[in-house]
């Protein structure tokens, strides 16, 4: 199998530079794609606004009673008398300046309204994420490949955790620990004690999924020949788990991290509602009740941005965990180079053929 | 390479207890196992491993499987031992039991299991760790999966050094480089910082061996160390293991391939169904096998003198096999085939480069080459599963591409295919009955006729009728390949393209399948294009042979002629690298092994 | 839930099988035990799940098999009575029988989950097939579109739809289906591409089937399995999210008997009466649990069959 290559490319000369360039390109491509996704989300909310049954103006105002002057003000604010394409670009322009529109119900900018409520929501989500993550990793490490009587009950609890709706689990906690046992404050408290029940309720479903995925990944990794090889070197089992298996088990977990972020956000919305906590959720559901469309679409966009950023982080983390995913310089990229990378400088033709097999023989 | 002169090897290791064996195997002619040499008692410092009546049982839910059913052996310092057996014989489990890694659900019992002077039968895990790596190095097959893909090669080797505090912390890195150099890895400083996927197969295997010998263990266990490698690389790894042996490390080699172990081992144990059926000095076992199973194994290996005979057991030894009469009609012809693939924007891979061939009725044309040589792409072009960039393929005088779809469908009846992995070529939902009948459904044969034809085909390929309603997953590898052959035969084709049809099979099953293919050819006059990387198999089945390399045909001609007097250097190198049982069977007599330069494999220079 | 490592219909792990001529009994593969963790979801749990699903189906078609009480009969003298006391699971703030309301609510809760999942399946499959067959540009565009919809957390997507169309059963079904559509599209596309690259599809071509026959006979049936299993599991998710929307007051409107709506309407009384807070939630959880267990079981069966 002959690989047509310019002769100088095979030499290592410009490798470092071209490798840096290709990494730069890869990063640029990812960021570009992320911006594209975000733009898509913006377009979706814009379309939703304009497709809404009943006039756009009603959608914007919602059920708030406004005077004709305000109404006229809104129409000119939103340029509703202009062609939709112009409105679309206006909308994009406002967004670029960080202006998510005006919530007539809140009587303030959507950006401000959301900004005010971000902190309590993030507090809840951070607590939930920590709980879910720590719980899932501990459970997975303790139960992977363990006898049935250890593994079985946890596996069952995980499925229950995945199945139970977060809002009802929150109600259950509230009923038992606040209303019956009075251990924790019931509603509206922003104290640390007030955070305990909501955080648990939030962590249960994603934590269950995460534990399932992690244990599954650990068990697969522990069955790999490289783990047997590592054990045959005489290293401790903890080292086997942490140094070899966990890294591979994290891969599938990270793959679903974006989805998990959405699950935490969605869960937070409902749980804030149940516990009457301050935050994005209460803001959104309240806005929904008054049909405050700019507010809802603003929250949607913030969530989408959140997701996009998480996914960018995931893309950055993958290659750290798995070197096979690291971008390689063009001379050593692609299926050919899995083996060829190590032989760039002076490979004999027969050698590159060994590595170049996949495409031709596949 | 095999030195029979070592006095310690001939006398001591003992076989398994035949009384626990399968009555069908427990052939009285091999008699009692050799008694242990009284000179080397257990506890002798030169005894590294002393095993008596080792039994390993796996519990799978309510079922349990006896993988090892009572084997005994001893390995002394500097010895080189091989355990040979087919898949499921228990050979790997035996090896893993020596490092306490028999596997999950395994119950290991033994009358004696002494490793490096330690009775390991009730050894806590913590103490096992002081044995692993330190006293026994362990090399699993295929370093691509046996080295952690997420860690640098150097870190894997350093792990052994650190676990046993072989050298002071500060010297670990230097020692890693030294070890890589020792196993023949060029540019060791650079390699240590690379990941397994960045190395060629041969280099990876060397790095894996380096990590196993890092703590300088007295015994190195290698489980199928060369199975995933091309034949030229295999030769280099075997030479490296032989060098370890010469340096004084004891070896325990696990393999399915008698020829491979004969290159390195002084003493061979033949394992079947969890016991040793025969053992002895390597030459003796190969030249004068006493147990029928060993004889069957040896007869099953396609070697020069077996050409034209049956490989699978026949009453009264090898029997000449009728060969098909090669007709004059050309049933398949390819002219000047070229196929390229775009790899990415700039590079083009020429997978098949100017390949022409002709196949006559009843003839077998072998195509041999290492991985990446373009064999499989050629097959796909012949089958019109891929269109060539230029050149033409004619089946029965009709070229693909010049015909409409309807004629094309009819043309496909004449040329069928058998894959290396039959399971993946079957629709996972289909039972055997439906698989075999599918070509008939394509040809719109009536249901009643299909039914009778399927039964006829079952008889032809030697399958019982009770497989009809089973799914392929429930069949053994050999049975699956028979189903694939039956499906290929169904439309009465003129040509069958066999793409590595026996590469995934154990040698005795391989023998049966090769015999079956030859019988069918003699009876039905089918022509085969037979693709394999295995020179022995190619020599056995082919009338003519093409040697491919880098997409080109480097040599072609009558198989006898090509194998006896190879003209091309590449062919000579291939033949020289093949490990053989008698040292010369497939090799041109005047060609010594020296053609293989240790580093040519791969990688570099 | 107990644990069995071997698929009841499958094979012993390790690939050896009845009729293996050599060495069938002693398999060297020691590592396969943990490979299919789903298989450990055991039969008692699976049987219970399927039995409970049967009960749910019966209750949704013939609620009168389970209760003779009118779910909407309010009795002011009987408000917030505890369990027992003539009412199996107590009464709510309007004196309605909670057990009767749960039984009668089955139909709507199941219907929301089923129809949302089915709608998502149909739309998602169409998008997925188009993406798989439509070449690189269409593939890239669909991929982007799916990413866009996946970037919005499921619940918020449903909220956006409801903000647009207004609350109600129908609109919450539409919102829910939108959540699951991208998942279906991805799975369908992945399956089609995986099967298209499979050796058995190539083998079918080599046998001489025309393209259309290859699709009908091999591609579609093999792609169907994973998609239907995803649909099953999604029914559970849709029931759970549907009840969430109802709880937020965006689904079926009172006085309709529906599990989420029941929780919503009595939430102000939770501090004084625990039973209206607990029992409808148990119904939701058990329904979702049964569907999840059944779905994971089917998935394990399929993976066991397709595993190489």
TrEMBL record, chain A:
Keywords: Cell membrane, Membrane, Transmembrane, Transmembrane helix, Transport. The chain crosses the membrane at residues 31-49, 124-144, 156-183, 195-214, 253-275, 295-318. The keyword Phosphoprotein does not apply. InterPro entries: MetI-like, MetI-like_sf. One of its GO terms (molecular function) is dipeptide transmembrane transporter activity. Residues 118-318 form the ABC transmembrane type-1 domain. This is ABC-type dipeptide/oligopeptide/nickel transport system, permease component. It comes from Frankia torreyi. The lineage of its organism: Bacteria, Bacillati, Actinomycetota, Actinomycetes, Frankiales.
From TrEMBL, chain B:
The keyword Zinc does not apply. GO terms for biological process: peptide transport; transmembrane transport. Residues 1-29 have a biased composition (Low complexity). InterPro entries: AAA+_ATPase, ABC_transp_ATP-bind, ABC_transporter-like_ATP-bd, ABC_transporter-like_CS, Oligopep_ABC_C, P-loop_NTPase. GO terms for molecular function: ATP binding; ATP hydrolysis activity. The keyword Calcium does not apply. Residues 1-46 are annotated as: Disordered. PROSITE patterns: ABC_TRANSPORTER_1 (PS00211), ABC_TRANSPORTER_2 (PS50893). Keywords: ATP-binding, Nucleotide-binding, Transport. Residues 49-298, 332-575 form the ABC transporter domain. It comes from the Bacteria. Signal peptide: none annotated. Belongs to the ABC transporter superfamily. PANTHER family: D,D-DIPEPTIDE TRANSPORT ATP-BINDING PROTEIN DDPF-RELATED, TRANSPORT ATP-BINDING PROTEIN. This is ATPase component of various ABC-type transport systems with duplicated ATPase domain. It comes from Frankia torreyi.
Automatic annotation (TrEMBL), chain C:
GO terms for biological process: transmembrane transport. The chain crosses the membrane at residues 45-62, 110-132, 144-165, 171-188, 227-252, 272-298. This is ABC-type dipeptide/oligopeptide/nickel transport system, permease component. Residues 1-32 are annotated as: Disordered. Its main location: membrane. Pfam families: BPD_transp_1 (PF00528). GO terms for cellular component: plasma membrane. InterPro entries: BP-dependent_transpt_permease, MetI-like, MetI-like_sf. It is a multi-pass membrane protein. Keywords: Cell membrane, Membrane, Transmembrane, Transmembrane helix, Transport. It is found in: Cell membrane. Belongs to the binding-protein-dependent transport system permease family. Residues 106-295 form the ABC transmembrane type-1 domain. The keyword Transport applies. It comes from the Bacteria. CDD domains: TM_PBP2 (cd06261).
């Amino acid at each position: 199998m002959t690989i047509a290559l310019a002769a100088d490319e095979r030499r290592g000369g410009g490798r470092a530079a071209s490798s840096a360039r290709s990494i730069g390109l890869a990063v640029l491509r990812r960021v570009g794609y992320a911006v594209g996704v975000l733009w898509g989300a913006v377009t979706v909310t814009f379309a939703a606004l304009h497709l809404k049954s009943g006039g756009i103006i009603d959608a914007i105002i919602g059920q708030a009673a406004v005077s004709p002057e305000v109404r006229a003000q809104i129409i000119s604010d939103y340029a509703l008398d202009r062609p939709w394409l112009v409105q679309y670009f206006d909308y994009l322009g406002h967004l670029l300046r960080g202006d998510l529109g005006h919530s007539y119900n809140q009587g303030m900018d959507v950006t401000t309204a959301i900004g005010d409520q971000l902190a309590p929501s993030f507090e809840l989500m951070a607590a939930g994420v920590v709980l879910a993550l720590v719980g899932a990793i501990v459970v997975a490490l303790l139960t992977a490949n363990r006898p049935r009587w250890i593994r079985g009950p946890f596996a069952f609890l995980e499925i229950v955790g995945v199945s139970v709706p977060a809002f009802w689990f929150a109600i259950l906690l509230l009923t038992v620990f606040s209303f019956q046992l009075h251990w924790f404050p019931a509603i509206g408290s922003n104290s640390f004690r007030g955070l305990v029940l909501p955080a648990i309720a939030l962590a249960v479903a994603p934590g269950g999924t995460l534990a399932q995925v992690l244990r599954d990944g650990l068990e697969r990794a522990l069955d790999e020949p490289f783990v047997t090889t590592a054990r045959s070197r005489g290293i401790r089992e903890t080292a086997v788990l942490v140094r070899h298996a966990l890294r591979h088990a994290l891969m599938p977990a990270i793959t679903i991290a974006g989805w998990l972020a959405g699950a935490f956000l969605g869960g937070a919305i409902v749980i804030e509602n149940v516990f009457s906590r301050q935050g994005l959720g209460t803001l959104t559901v309240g806005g929904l009740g008054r049909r405050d469309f700019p507010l809802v679409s603003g929250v949607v966009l913030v969530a989408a941005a959140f997701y996009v950023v998480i996914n960018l982080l995931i893309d950055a983390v993958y290659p750290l965990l798995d070197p096979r995913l690291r971008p390689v310089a063009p001379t050593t990229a692609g299926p050919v180079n899995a083996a060829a990378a190590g032989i760039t400088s002076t490979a004999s033709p027969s050698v590159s053929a060994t590595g170049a097999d996949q495409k031709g023989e596949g | 390479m095999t030195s029979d002169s070592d006095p310690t090897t001939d006398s001591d290791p003992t076989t398994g207890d035949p009384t626990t064996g399968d009555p069908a195997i427990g052939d009285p002619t091999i008699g009692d196992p050799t008694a242990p040499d009284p000179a080397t008692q257990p506890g002798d410092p030169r005894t590294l491993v002393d095993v008596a009546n080792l039994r390993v049982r796996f519990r799978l839910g309510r079922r349990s499987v006896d993988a090892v059913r009572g084997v005994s052996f001893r390995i002394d310092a500097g010895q080189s031992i091989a355990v040979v057996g087919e898949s499921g014989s228990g050979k790997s489990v035996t090896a893993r039991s020596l490092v306490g890694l028999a596997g999950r659900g395994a119950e290991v019992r033994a009358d004696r299991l002494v490793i490096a002077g330690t009775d390991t039968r009730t050894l806590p895990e913590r103490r096992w760790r002081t044995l692993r790596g330190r006293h026994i190095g362990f090399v699993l097959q295929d370093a691509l999966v046996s080295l952690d893909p997420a860690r640098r090669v150097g870190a894997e080797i350093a792990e052994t050094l650190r676990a046993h505090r072989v050298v002071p912390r500060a010297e670990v890195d230097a020692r890693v480089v030294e070890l890589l150099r020792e196993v023949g890895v060029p540019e060791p400083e650079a390699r240590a910082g690379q990941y397994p996927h960045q190395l060629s197969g041969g280099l990876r295997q060397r790095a894996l061996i380096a990590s196993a010998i890092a703590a300088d263990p007295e015994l190195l266990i290698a489980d199928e160390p060369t199975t995933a490698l091309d034949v030229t690389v295999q030769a280099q790894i075997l030479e490296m293991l032989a060098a370890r042996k010469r340096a004084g490390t004891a070896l325990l080699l696990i393999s399915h391939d008698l020829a491979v172990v004969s290159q390195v081992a002084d003493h061979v144990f033949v394992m079947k169904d969890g016991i040793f059926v025969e053992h002895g000095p390597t030459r003796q076992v190969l030249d004068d096998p006493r147990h029928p199973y060993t004889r069957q194994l040896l007869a099953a290996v396609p070697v020069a003198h077996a050409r034209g005979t049956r490989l699978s057991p026949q009453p009264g030894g090898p029997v000449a096999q009728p060969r098909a009469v090669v007709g004059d009609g050309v049933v398949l012809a390819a002219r000047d085939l070229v196929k390229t693939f775009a790899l990415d924007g700039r590079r083009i891979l020429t997978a098949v480069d100017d390949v022409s061939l002709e196949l006559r009725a009843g003839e077998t044309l072998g195509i041999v080459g290492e991985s990446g040589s373009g064999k499989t792409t050629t097959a796909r072009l012949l089958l019109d599963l891929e269109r060539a960039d230029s050149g033409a393929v004619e089946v029965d005088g009709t070229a693909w591409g010049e015909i409409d779809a309807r004629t094309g469908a009819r043309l496909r009846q004449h040329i069928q295919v058998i894959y290396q992995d039959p399971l993946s070529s079957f629709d996972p939902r289909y039972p055997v009955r439906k698989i075999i009948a599918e070509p008939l459904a394509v040809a719109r044969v009536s249901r009643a006729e299909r039914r009778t034809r399927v039964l006829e085909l079952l008889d032809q390929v030697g399958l019982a009728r009770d497989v009809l309603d089973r799914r392929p997953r429930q069949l053994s590898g050999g049975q699956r390949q028979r189903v694939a052959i039956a499906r290929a035969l169904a439309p009465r084709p003129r040509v069958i393209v066999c793409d590595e049809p026996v590469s995934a099979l154990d040698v005795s099953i391989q023998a049966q399948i090769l015999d079956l293919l030859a019988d069918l050819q003699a009876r039905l006059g089918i022509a085969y294009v037979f693709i394999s990387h295995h020179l022995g198999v190619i020599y056995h089945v082919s009338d003519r042979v093409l040697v491919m390399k880098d997409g080109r045909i480097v040599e072609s001609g009558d198989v006898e002629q090509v194998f006896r007097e190879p003209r091309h250097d590449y062919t000579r190198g291939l033949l020289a690298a093949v490990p053989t049982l008698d040292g010369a069977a497939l090799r041109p007599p005047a060609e010594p092994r020296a053609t293989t330069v240790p580093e040519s494999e791969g990688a570099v220079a | 839930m107990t644990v069995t490592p071997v698929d009841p219909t499958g094979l012993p792990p390790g690939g050896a099988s009845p009729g293996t001529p050599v060495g069938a009994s002693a398999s060297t593969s020691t590592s396969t035990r943990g490979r299919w963790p789903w298989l450990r979801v055991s039969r008692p749990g699976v049987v219970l799940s399927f039995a409970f699903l049967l009960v749910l189906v019966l209750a949704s078609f013939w609620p009168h098999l389970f209760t003779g009480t009118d779910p909407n009969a309010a009795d002011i003298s009987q408000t917030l009575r505890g369990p027992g006391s003539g009412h199996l699971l107590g009464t709510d703030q309007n004196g309605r029988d909670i057990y009767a309301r749960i039984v009668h609510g089955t139909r709507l809760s199941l219907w929301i989950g089923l129809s949302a999942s089915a709608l998502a399946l149909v739309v998602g499959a169409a998008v997925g097939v188009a993406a798989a067959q439509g070449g690189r540009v269409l593939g890239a565009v669909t991929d982007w579109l799916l990413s866009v919809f996946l970037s919005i957390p499921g619940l918020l997507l449903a909220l956006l739809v409801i903000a647009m169309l207004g609350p109600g059963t129908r609109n919450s079904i539409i919102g829910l289906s939108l959540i699951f559509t991208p998942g279906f599209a991805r799975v369908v596309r992945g399956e089609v591409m995986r099967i298209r690259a499979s050796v058995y599809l190539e083998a079918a071509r080599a046998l001489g089937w025309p393209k259309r026959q290859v699709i009908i006979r091999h591609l579609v049936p093999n792609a169907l399995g994973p998609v239907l299993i995803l649909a099953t599991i999604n029914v559970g998710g849709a029931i759970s999210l549907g009840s969430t929307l109802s709880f937020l007051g965006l689904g079926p409107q009172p006085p309709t008997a529906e599990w989420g709506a029941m929780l919503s309407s009595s939430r102000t009384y939770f501090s004084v009466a625990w039973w209206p807070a607990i029992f409808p939630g148990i119904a939701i959880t058990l329904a979702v649990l049964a569907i999840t267990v059944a779905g994971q079981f089917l998935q394990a069966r399929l993976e066991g069959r397709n595993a190489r």
